[in-house]
């Protein structure tokens, strides 16, 4: 029995030593020495980027496709300046008329000016293009021109997706 107790005591001591060698001691760090580390949440409480599925394309065109929304860009404004569209693929026929406009324009869509979710390419004076946006969730959005400081000068509009 004593031989058996010695064996159990030896195995317990070996287990303790092997466990303690895996333990690492780290120095204490104060809050001011810590650098912020981004946290990724997984599971039901995770934050999902609602814009991750949004995509857009711009292609030069002389006419807009059937069902598209025609929007002219001139006088530092969008005409119409307020657009309402159903959920699904949003197709806007951007027209930059040579007889009304003075330069190039574009159209960006975001939650506010500067926070781009989708954006067209620049449409030169006298040209037109088809701006297609897929995956935009229902909600209210801001439209603005990304050329120079056109947005600051008032080239801003509204988009509602229902």
In short:
This protein has 162 residues and is of the alpha+beta class.
How would you explain this protein's 3D organization?
It is a single chain. This protein is an alpha+beta fold and 162 residues long. It has a domain at 55-161: Sandwich (Immunoglobulin-like). The protein contains one helix and ten strands. The chain has one helix at residues 2-22; strands spanning 55-60, 69-74, 77-79, 82-85, 90-95, 108-110, 116-119, 128-134, 139-144, 156-161. The strands form two sheets. A five-stranded mixed beta sheet has the order 1-8-5-2-3, with no helix packed on it. Strand 2 and strand 3 (77-79) form a beta hairpin. The protein is globular and about 40 Å long. The N and C termini lie far apart (81 Å). The model is unreliable at 11-46 (pLDDT under 50).
What does the secondary structure layout of this molecule look like, with pairings?
Layout: H1 2-22, E1 55-60, E2 69-74, E3 77-79, E4 82-85, E5 90-95, E6 108-110, E7 116-119, E8 128-134, E9 139-144, E10 156-161
Parallel strand pairs: 2-5, 4-10
Antiparallel strand pairs: 1-8, 2-3, 5-8, 6-7, 6-9, 9-10
- Indicate the structural class: alpha+beta
* Gap from first CA to last CA: 81 Å
Total strands: 10
CATH architecture tag of one domain: Sandwich
Overall, the morphology is globular
Spatial order of strands in the largest sheet: 1-8-5-2-3
- Poorly predicted runs: 11-46
**Share of helix, binned:** 10-25%
Major sheet, described briefly?
5 strands, mixed
């Amino acid at each position: 029995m004593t031989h058996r107790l010695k064996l159990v005591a030896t195995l317990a001591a070996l287990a303790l030593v092997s466990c303690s060698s895996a333990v690492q001691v780290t120095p204490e760090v104060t809050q001011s020495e810590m650098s912020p580390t981004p946290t990724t949440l997984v599971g039901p409480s995770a934050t999902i980027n609602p814009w991750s599925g949004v995509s857009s394309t711009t292609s030069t065109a002389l006419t807009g496709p059937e069902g598209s929304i025609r929007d002219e860009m001139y006088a530092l404004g969008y005409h119409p300046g307020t657009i309402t569209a159903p959920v699904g693929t949003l197709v806007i026929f951007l027209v930059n008329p040579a007889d009304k406009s003075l330069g190039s324009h574009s159209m960006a869509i975001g939650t506010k000016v500067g926070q781009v979710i989708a954006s067209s390419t620049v449409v030169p004076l006298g040209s037109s293009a088809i701006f297609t946006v897929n995956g935009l969730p229902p909600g209210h959005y801001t439209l603005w021109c990304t050329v120079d400081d056109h947005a600051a000068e008032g080239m801003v509009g509204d988009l509602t997706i229902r």
